[in-house]
Amino acid sequence: MDKKRCGWVGDDQVYLDYHDYVWGRPVYGSQELFAKLCLDGQQAGLSWITILKKQKNYEAAFANFDPAVIAKFDAAKVEELLQDKGIVRNRLKVNSIIKNARAYMANFSDTKGEQGNDFSEFLWSFVGGSPIVNHFEAMEEIPVKTSESEAMSNALKKMGFNFVGPTICYAFMQAVGMFNDHATYCFCYDKCNKEGSSS
């Protein structure tokens, strides 16, 4: 018997694996959350699978999304990245990852000592520290943004992050398990609930 999946999943194996093993699973590592936030920003105007297929290329081009390294990228590095066919060669999007890394270092760096905040705790605070479980039965019921994603977007923008509008933030929050938006009939729905309650 075939597994029942969310309606947005296509037939591409990359997409199937992403849905089955990644999307909606709670993520708490600060650097992994930073990477996912940047990648969601790259999606703007494109389909998610386009970025998903380029994820390994992005990791190679952007130092595995280490904010401390990316924050030091200069104009010459930007020009080099714009020649990289493995990523989306859009100047605004390339610069957005660098800008976000600098915002991360300014607000969440360990080097800030007692002044530094924890990026993971900060992001998860918008959902009270644990996943919000929704009960959607159809794709049409799922919102494109929520009050939580709008609050996250506003806070990140004030800190200097960009490509973090409320719709991008909501897609990010779904992807990292802050919301369980798997359809109730999807075989991943209960799995994500268990992972969220055990974290």
TrEMBL record:
Species of provenance: Shewanella benthica KT99
Q: Which UniProt keywords apply?
A: Glycosidase, Hydrolase, Metal-binding, Zinc
Q: Where does Zn(2+) bind?
A: 6, 19, 182, 186
Against NCBIfam families, the record matches this protein to: tag
MF-aspect GO terms:
DNA-3-methyladenine glycosylase activity; metal ion binding
Recorded protein name is DNA-3-methyladenine glycosidase I
One biological process term from GO is: base-excision repair
Q: What is the lineage of its organism?
A: Bacteria, Pseudomonadati, Pseudomonadota, Gammaproteobacteria, Alteromonadales
Q: Which InterPro entries match?
A: Adenine_glyco (IPR005019), DNA-3mA_glycosylase (IPR052891), DNA_glycosylase (IPR011257), Tag (IPR004597)
Stored Pfam families: Adenine_glyco
